[in-house]
Amino acid sequence: MLLTATLVGRLPTAMAPLALLLAARADHAGTALGALLAALYALCGAVGQPLLGRAVDRRRLAGVALLAAAVAGGAFTALAVVGTGRNPILSGVLVAIAGLATPPLEAGLRAMWQRLVVPQDQQAAFALDATAQEVVYVAGPALTTILCQLASPTAALIACAAFGATGTALVASSRPARAHNPARRASHWLGPLRSPGVLVLLGAATLLGASLGSFNVYALAAADRHGTGWLAGVLPAALSCGSLVGGIIWARLTHSAPPDQLLRIVSARFAAPLVLLLLTPEPALTVAAAALPGLFLAPWLATAFQQADRLAPQGTATEAAAWLVAVIGLGGAAGTALAGQLSAAGPVAVAALTLTSAVAAALVLALRR
C-alpha cells in the first residue's frame, strides 16, 4: 500500500515534462519555451530533493511531504489557469516552484525500508522499489497523452496537482511516515556528503544518469539512421522492459555478497551489453541490444540505494537517497545535452558516449571501494 501510494504521488515527475511541452504548443508559445520549462522543472526538482530530504531527516516525512505537495499542487494549478504563453516569466517561476516543492516520496520511502522490513528482506524491498518506479515513467507519459487528447494540456497540469496531492496524502496517513526518525541526526552542514563512500556512490550515479540521458538521444539518432521513426519510442521502452524483468528476477534471488561488491558486478554487467550499440545492427537487433543493459538497471538502482542507506552517517539516510535521486537526474540532463551535440555525427557517436559513461561509472566503483 505504501509503495503504491508513493508511485501515485510520483506520477507528476513523469507527467509534467510532457505536459509542459504540450501546453506551450497549445498556447502557441512554441516548442522551445516548452522544452525550457520542462528542463527547468527537472533541474529545480533535482535541487529541491536534497533540501527536502534534510528536512525529513530532522522532522518526519508526513509533514514535509504534505507541505511540499500543497505548494507544488498550487503551482501546477496556477500554471493551468494563467497558461504558459501569456507570461513566460511567470510561467517559469511557477514551474520552478513546482519542481523545487516536489514531495520527497522516493527518497523518503527508501530511507524507511530499514525500519519496515527485516535485514534479510531489505535487498528484495529495494529491488521491488526500483522495479516499480518503471511504472511511473511508463504510466506518466501515457496518462498525459490521454488527457491531452480527451481534454487539454491544462487538464494534464491539473492532474499533476491531483495525483501529487492524492499520493502524498496516502503516504502521509501511514504510520511509518508519521513516525519520527529513530536515528538521531548528527549536526553537520554537509550532511551525508561528509561520507567519502557516499561521494563515490554519487559520482558513479551521476555517470549512470549521463549514460541513460544519452541513450534517449541515441534512440532518436538510430531512428533517423534506419528511417524507422518507431525506434525512438521503442528503444527506451525496451530498456524499461528489461529493467522490469531484471528487477523482478533480482528481488527473487538470494545474494550472499555484500552490497558494495554486488554494485560493482551489476555496474559492469550494465555497461558490457552497450558495446552492441556501436555495431548499429538492424532495428530488431537494436531493440534486443537495448533490452540487455536494462536487465541490470533496476538491480543497479536497488543496490545503489541500499548502499547509500548503509554509507550515510546516522540520521541522514533520507537526504542521502535524495542526493542519489538528484545526481541521476542531473547526470541525465548533462548526458542528453552532450549527446545532442554529438547526434549530428550519427548514432555511433552517441552510443560511444552512452557506453563511455556506463564504463566510467563501473570504473569509479571498482577503483574507489
Describe the structure.
There is one protein chain. This protein is an all-alpha fold and 369 residues long. It has two domains: 177 residues, MFS general substrate transporter like domains (Growth Hormone, Chain: A, Up-down Bundle); 175 residues, MFS general substrate transporter like domains (Growth Hormone, Chain: A, Up-down Bundle). Helix content is 80%, strand content 0%. The protein is built from 15 helices and no strands. Helix 6 packs antiparallel against helix 7 and helix 9 packs parallel to helix 14. The longest helix has 32 residues. The radius of gyration is 20 Å and the shape is globular. It starts with a helix and ends with a helix.
Structure summary:
With 369 residues, the protein is mainly alpha-helical.
E-strand count: 0
Structural class determined from secondary elements: mainly alpha
What is the number of helices?
Answer: 15
> Largest sheet, described in full?
none
* CATH superfamily heading of the largest domain: MFS general substrate transporter like domains
Percentage of helical residues?
A: over 70%
Mind telling me which CATH architecture of the largest domain this is?
Answer: Up-down Bundle
**Mean pLDDT over all positions:** 84
Strand content: under 5%
Order of helices and strands: HHHHHHHHHHHHHHH
The best one-word shape is globular
CATH level 3 topology of the largest domain: Growth Hormone, Chain: A
